[in-house]
C-alpha cells in the first residue's frame, strides 16, 4: 500500500519542474513489454541495454546472472538505473517461470530463426524480449521455452549485431508502434504512484535521514 502522505511530503522537496517531468515520462512508460538479458559478460552491454529501456520507455529490465553476476556499469547507464526497475534472476528457468506467470510470452531474439521479422511482430500480446550473450547468443533453454522468435531484417553480409545495438533497434521500433496503437499499454494508476514515490526517493539526497524525520514526526 502506497503511503500517499509520505509521497506528498517528499514531493514538497522536489522542484515543480522535476515533478512535472516525472508525470511526462510516466505517461510513456510501459510494462506491456519487458526485456531480459541472459548472462551478458561484457558489463557495458547490459548497462547500454538498460539505457535503451529507459530512453524508449520500458520500465523493467530482467537480468539473468546464472554465470556472470556483475553490478551495473553506472557510467555507461548514465543514471538510467535510477529510473528503470532491475529484476535480477539467478537462473534462466527462474526468469522464464516468473515472466510466464506474469502473462508474458517469451520471445527469443535471434538472427537464425525465420519465425518473425521485426516489422511483422504482433505487438498486441505482452512480451518478454530475450537477448543473449555477445558470442553464443541465447541458451538452448531459452530457445526451447520460447513462444516465438524475432529477428531484425538485415541486407548485408554480417549475420548479427552487438546486443546493445539489437536491443535499441527492437525496443525503439516496438515501443513506437505501441504508442501509436489503441492498446492498453500504459502503467496503471497504482504503478504510476509507486514510480512517483520511487523516483522521488532516488532524487533526494540524504533520503534516509529525511525518511527517519518524517516517521518520527508522525509518532
UniProtKB/TrEMBL annotation:
Gene3D superfamilies: 3.40.1280.10
Reactions mediated catalytically: guanosine(18) in tRNA + S-adenosyl-L-methionine = 2'-O-methylguanosine(18) in tRNA + S-adenosyl-L-homocysteine + H(+)
CDD domains listed in its UniProt record: SpoU-like_TrmH
Keyword vocabulary terms for this entry: Methyltransferase, RNA-binding, S-adenosyl-L-methionine, Transferase, tRNA processing, tRNA-binding
InterPro entries, A to Z: Alpha/beta_knot_MTases, SpoU_MeTrfase, TrmH, tRNA_m1G_MTases_N
Binding site for S-adenosyl-L-methionine: 109, 152, 161
Boundaries of every tRNA/rRNA methyltransferase SpoU type domain copy: 33-171
First-tier enzyme category under EC: transferase
EC identifiers of the protein: 2.1.1.34
UniProt GO MF annotations: methyltransferase activity
The protein, known as: tRNA (guanosine(18)-2'-O)-methyltransferase
Highest classification ranks of the organism: Bacteria, Pseudomonadati, Bacteroidota, Flavobacteriia, Flavobacteriales
